[in-house]
Amino acid sequence: MSSHACSGKYTRLIVFDMDSTLIDAETIDELAKAAGVGEEVAEITRRAMNGEMDYGEALRKRVLLLKGLSVKRAVEATMRIRYNPGAEELVRRVKSLGYITAMISGGFTLSADRVGEELGMDYVYSNELVVDRGVLTGEVRGPLLEHDSKMKVLMQIAKQEGVDYRRCIVIGDGANDIQLFKKAGYRIAFNSKPVLQKYADVVVEGNDLRKVIPIIEALDLAMTLDSSL
After folding, report:
1. Hey, what's the torsion of the CAs at 166, 141, 105, 37, to 10 degrees?
2. CATH 3.40.50.1000 segments of the chain
3. Has 177 been annotated as catalytic?
4. Which of 60, 130, 177, 222 is most open to solvent, judged by the fewest CB atoms within 10 Å of its CB?
5. What is the pTM of this model?
6. Which of 17, 29, 113, 122 is catalytic?
7. What is the residue-wise DSSP string for 66-101?
8. Phi-psi region of 184 (alpha: psi -120 to 50; beta: other; left: phi over 0)
C-alpha cells in the first residue's frame, strides 16, 4: 500500500479502480502470462470479477500460482500494460474541477504506484506481492484483500479529508467494486461486468474514458448548484 496525502481541502472525492478501468488489462493476468499460468489465472479472474467466487479466495489462489516468478519479469510484464484511451485526460479534468483523486486497486504496488504517480493521483491504495530473494513467494499482503475492502478504504479517505462519502463519485468494472458502489453517492460502471451494472447510476460501454468526462462535468454542475441552495 502507498498513499499520498493531497494538499488543501476540497468538497468532493472521486475514486478510480485501476485494472480494466484506468489501464487496459488485469495486472494479475499479465503477471500470470509471464509465469506461464495465464489461462488458469485468467479463468479465476473471470469468475471473481463476475461475482462467481469470493474475491479474497480468488486473489489468494491466483497469487499462489505466481510463486517463483522473478520480480524483474513481473515488472517487465506490468510495463507493457497500456492506459485505456482518455485516462490522462479524465484525471486532468477532474483535478481541474477540484476533486481529490484516489485510485483504490486490488492490484499490486509494482504497477499501481507507477500508474498513480504518472496520473498524479492524490491517494493510491493497492496490495503488495511478497518477495524473497528477487522472486515472488506466492503470498500477498495489503489493505485490499476482501470483497468489501475498497468500501472501507473509501470511508477512511472520506473521513480523513472531511468529505461526505455520499457525495463521492466511483468508477469501476467488476464484482469487487460492488460494496464500493453501494456506499458512494454516484456510481459509474465503466467497461464493466454485468454483475456490477445493476448497482450503477450510469453504464459506459467500451474502454474510452473520454466518454466519462461529460458525465462528470454535468454531475459536478448539478452538485455545485445543489450545494449552493
Report:
1. -150
2. 13-25+83-228
3. no
4. 222
5. 0.92
6. 17
7. TTT-BHHHHHHHHHTPPBPTTHHHHHHHHHHTT-EE
8. beta
Is 19 a known active-site residue?
yes
Is 13-25+83-228 assigned to CATH 3.90.1310.10? Answer: no
Per-residue model confidence as pLDDT tens for the chain (229 residues): 444 444 334 468 999 999 999 999 999 999 999 999 999 999 999 999 898 999 999 999 999 999 999 999 999 999 999 999 999 999 999 999 999 999 999 999 999 999 999 999 999 999 999 999 999 999 999 999 999 999 999 999 999 999 998 889 999 999 999 999 999 999 999 999 999 999 999 999 999 999 999 999 999 888 777 765 4
Using CA atoms, how far apart are residues 2 and 142, in angstroms rounded to an integer?
10
Grid coordinates belonging to 224:
455545485
Residues near 214 by beta carbon (within 8 Å), at least 6 away in sequence: none
